[in-house]
């Protein structure tokens, strides 16, 4: 049943960080399928604002160094943490595929920035669910470097656009993790009269 499959897929989707990802290539056709499904996200005014840059292989080294150096440049010296810098210089090498998530702003700006960002988030969820169907986990990272104007420019966007983070994709080395959520009833109010 489609409903059962959808329920299972949505609840199975998990975040796993790069250090828990296997050193195993991901077939390009899977990434292509994730991107195609991202492209089917809802989009106000059909602006299709999502932009993706895929880093694989050696390109990840430059990305890792860029992230660490951007973190250093954007962080006041008293808030700078050496272990964070080192983590940033490694993460991109621990995941076989890293996807930079961007939002391209329309010149007319007819659609609000909020709507454009929300559309991109829908696209990312489509990617994540598709990854899950292939036994892949992922991690959406939104640290200071990953969402900076520097990151936008690094991926060919401008200061009018937005870098919305990095999406690390890979196979988990450990067992598929279980998730947890507080009850939906805590977050819902039904209004009927
Ligand atoms: C927009 C967005 C940004 C996120 N950024 C981070 C992040 O910077 N660091 C982090 O540890 N997790 C980040 N996450 C992932 C969450 O930690 C993760 O979704 C949460 O722990 C629930 O786990 P699950 O995805 O396996 O259900 C982000 C998730 C979203 C939706």
The first-level CATH class name = Alpha Beta
Strand order of the largest sheet: 1-2-4-3
Strand elements, count: 4
Tell me the series of helices and strands, N- to C-terminal. Answer: HHEHHEHEHE
What fold name goes in the CATH topology slot? Answer: NADH Oxidase
What is the overall silhouette? globular
Instruction: Sketch the major β-sheet.
Output: 4 strands, antiparallel
Task: Please outline what is shown here.
This protein is of the alpha+beta class and 193 residues long. Helices cover 40% and strands 15% of the residues. The longest helix is centred in the middle third of the chain and has 21 residues.
What does this protein look like?
With 193 residues, the chain is α+β, with helices and mostly antiparallel strands. 40% of the residues lie in helices and 15% in strands. It is built from six helices and four strands, in the order H-H-E-H-H-E-H-E-H-E. The chain has helices spanning 2-12, 28-38, 59-74, 82-94, 113-133, 149-154, and strands spanning 50-56, 97-103, 137-141, 162-170. A four-stranded antiparallel beta sheet has the order 1-2-4-3. The two termini are 35 Å apart. Bound molecules: flavin mononucleotide.
């Amino acid at each position: 049943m489609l409903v059962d499959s959808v329920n299972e897929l949505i609840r199975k989707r998990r975040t796993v960080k790069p250090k828990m990802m296997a050193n195993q290539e991901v077939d390009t056709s899977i990434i292509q399928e994730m991107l195609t499904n991202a492209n089917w996200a809802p989009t106000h005014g059909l602006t299709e604002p999502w932009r993706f840059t895929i880093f694989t292989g050696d390109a990840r080294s430059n990305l890792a160094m860029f992230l660490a150096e951007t973190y250093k440049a954007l962080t006041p010296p008293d808030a700078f943490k050496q272990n964070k810098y080192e983590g940033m210089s490694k993460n991109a090498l621990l995941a076989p595929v890293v996807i930079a998530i961007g939002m391209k702003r329309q010149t007319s700006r007819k659609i609000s920035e909020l709507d454009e960002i929300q559309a991109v988030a829908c696209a990312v969820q489509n990617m994540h669910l598709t990854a899950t169907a292939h036994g892949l986990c992922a991690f959406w990272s939104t640290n200071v470097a990953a969402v900076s104007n520097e990151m936008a420019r690094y991926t060919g966007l401008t200061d009018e656009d937005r870098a919305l983070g990095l999406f690390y994709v890979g196979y988990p080395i450990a067992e598929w993790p279980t998730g947890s959520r507080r009850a939906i009833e805590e977050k819902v109010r039904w209004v009927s009269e």
